[in-house]
Design a protein that fits this description.
alpha/beta, seven-stranded parallel β-sheet, four-stranded mixed β-sheet, 16 helices, 11 strands, globular, binds NADPH dihydro-nicotinamide-adenine-dinucleotide phosphate, binds magnesium ion
């Protein structure tokens, strides 16, 4: 494909990753040059064959060795350094980071440090290292275009306005599978119930984050860093239909809303095309059959994860990094049946109060806070479980 944009997809075997490959296959303007996964080496090798890429990387060394035996048409890289080498060697003009969790921070830093544009699904990169990540992008001139339905909406809405014209940003939350329940009704919820998201099909971690509403807390931080808007001017509203993704409020009281089907390929395509709409084979909304759009306030008593995220966001320093790491450990333990649903915020709160927030001087201090928080959260899980 002469003249096509060279695209590297990190986390290509996941929910966002596989949809990104579909979007690339539909576009003459996008050429895949590399792919990565953590352990799913068979799926990754199949993708490498189907899309004729030059390089792949696996986070897990053992899985990488198996892939290297099975696929000899290109280079196989291994481990966390392998992911960074993939970014540096691929010659990509755009990297889609669709990894889960703070493991995405290293590749985000490598991408932006090289001045390569970043399509960012890995919101945890911004939650953990927001100030340093955006400063790095500014220093090298690399662009960050979000891959998150709410932030794609805001990006598109703000692109049509002069700077400062919007006075508030509003992101919507579906409310997850437990919308409308009071705290006492969340005591005994099961993993299967928490994974049954009403409107979006996503990877396991973000689906649990959506059930606890931590996802909305992470998204508040994501919006703050992406658009440089203070927290007092970003709101969350529950919108169970997941058809309005984001809104901006103007100085004269008008509100502009972004609507679309709950299909992540729209956000992925927008980011892969550098923040522009491109043709995509998706059925648009049929408004008469949509009928009603409804909105509700968030219940912070039933969903304390959002309150904890707001507090950590305002505190700043290493607090968001600690919150994120503790959440990753707690969600992992919940999915493994070692923690109850309401113990997720408990683990996070204990970890935050034990560690306290420190100023962030460097990426190193973030990696250290992440490591310490994981250890303490692991202890808290063991005590509760
Ligand atoms: P998935 O769990 O479906 O996929 C994650 C991908 O990353 C897989 O390819 C996985 O490999 C790989 N991976 C996981 N951990 C590591 C690691 N430690 N090192 C290297 N590779 C790793 O996640 P999603 O696609 O759902 O989410 C990806 C990101 O996008 C998250 O940050 C999420 O919050 C965000 N996002 C997702 C949305 C969605 O609709 N899914 C919507 C908005 C944002 P393997 O297959 O081997 O496990
Ligand atoms: Mg979202």
């Amino acid at each position: 494909m002469p003249g096509a944009k060279r695209v590297l997809v990190l986390g290509s075997t996941g929910s966002i990753g596989t949809q990104a490959l579909e979007v690339c296959a539909q576009s003459e303007e996008l050429e895949l040059v590399g792919l990565s996964a953590e352990r799913s080496w068979e799926a990754l090798v199949a993708q490498a064959r189907a899309h004729c890429v030059e390089r792949i990387a696996l986070g897990d060394e053992h899985a990488a060795a198996r892939a290297a035996e099975a696929w000899t048409d290109g280079r196989v890289l291994a481990g966390a350094e392998g992911l960074v080498t993939l970014v540096l060697e691929s010659g990509a003009e755009l990297v889609l980071n669709a990894l889960v969790g703070s493991a995405g921070l290293g590749p985000t830093v490598a991408t932006l440090g090289e001045g390569i544009d970043l399509a960012l699904a890995n919101k945890e990169s911004l939650v953990v290292g927001g100030e340093l990540v955006t400063a790095l992008a500014e220093a090298t001139g690399a662009r960050i275009v979000p891959v998150d339905s709410e932030h794609t909406a805001l990006h598109q809405l703000l692109a049509g306005q002069p700077p400062g014209a919007a006075t508030r940003l509003i992101i919507t939350a579906s409310g997850g599978p437990f919308r409308g329940r009071v705290r006492a009704e969340l005591e005994d919820v099961t993993v299967a119930e928490a994974l049954a998201h009403p409107t979006w099909a996503m990877g396991g971690k973000i689906t649990i984050d959506s059930a606890t509403l931590m996802n909305k807390g992470l998204e508040l931080m994501e919006a703050h860093h992406l658009f440089g808007v203070p927290y007092e001017r970003i709101d969350v509203v529950v919108h169970p239909q997941s058809l309005v993704h984001g809104l901006i409020q103007m100085a004269d009281g008008a509100m502009l809303a972004h609507l679309g089907p709950p299909d992540m390929r729209i956000a992925i395509s927008y980011a892969l095309h550098g923040g522009e709409s491109a043709p995509l084979d998706i059925t648009p909304l049929d408004l008469p059959s949509v009928g009603e759009l409804t909105f509700e306030a968030v219940d912070l008593d039933a969903f304390p994860c959002l309150r904890l995220a707001c507090e950590a966001a305002r505190e700043g320093g290493t607090a968001p990094c600690i919150l994120n790491a503790a959440n990753e450990i707690a969600v992992h333990a919940f999915l493994a049946g070692r923690l109850r649903f309401l113990e997720i915020p408990e683990v996070i709160e204990r970890t935050l109060s034990e560690l306290g927030s420190e100023p962030v001087h460097s990426f190193e201090s973030l990696y250290e806070a992440d490591r310490q928080a994981r250890a303490l959260a692991g202890d808290a899980v063991a005590r509760l479980g």
